[in-house]
Specification:
The chain is 73% helix and 1% strand. Strands 1-2 form a two-stranded antiparallel ribbon. The longest helix is centred in the middle third of the chain and has 28 residues.
Length: 324
Amino acid sequence: MLSIETYQHKFIEYLEAYSIVKEPKNLYEPIQYILKLGGKRLRPVLTLMTSEIFNGDYKEALDAALSIEVFHNFSLVHDDIMDDAPLRRGNQTVHEKWDINTGILSGDAMLIMAYQLFENYDNKTFRALAELFSKTALEVCEGQQYDVDFESREDVTIDEYLKMIEYKTAVLVGAAMKMGAIVANASAENQNRIYQFGKNLGIAFQLQDDYLDAFGDPKTFGKQVGGDIIENKKTFLYINALKGSNAEDRLQLQHLFSVSPSNPEEKIKIGKQIFIESGSTKATKNAIKEYTQKAFAILETINISEDKKLVLKQFGEQLMYRNL
């Protein structure tokens, strides 16, 4: 097996060779733009790695990995339109650099292109990849709708929030790993177990993002710390804080998350203080640990060598405990 860095390098090489510069330019240039903005490339790396975990050749998984990356970026283009977000990875979002109609249409084209990449596989593999992709893509849309619905609700429960991040974020991580297993012709049992491993790791990853948004190091987090508090997002931290706060703090937190602040830094400071005093910070750390351990428990049931289990476990630990 290769190192994570090598998988990243090999995938980026393949991505850069993926030529999509053609007419009409206003359809394809935005696609090229969003795909070249960078990012962790976490999902495609997991596809390549998983294919070799199950004794396949990562080169054969490159089209599946690229499909996952194209789909992920399609979802970001449309999410940015829905959120009216001006920046993505420190650069203008597609709809800001071009316009909303271009963002919608280029995003639609990316979804179709993601499907097209499966055509490079034999019929059996194509069908398995397409079925998984269709199921996952629909779940991601469902997760996004839950997220939108939560913006206007004050009664979101922890279970509802966990379901939302499972669909919006975690199923795509699970699917990325299962695609690698499908390409490698792993057994159905191992395909399903590696999917569950990835999904639980994806939930832990999103919970950690929630935590780092409030308590991360601004130098390493990659975006504004406290952004979720400023934007009144009902994250795991917020929902747990409401549950664990006294009446006075609960009212203060609800008011805090209903206004646009004249002093964002003060809003962040008060929000973080309530998160800590309510026990929400501790509960979030415990949940991250719980879902990581669930992933590792599933890993133990997968029929691969101990060395390969160790590689996946070390990757999971690197992912989970960054800056925590």
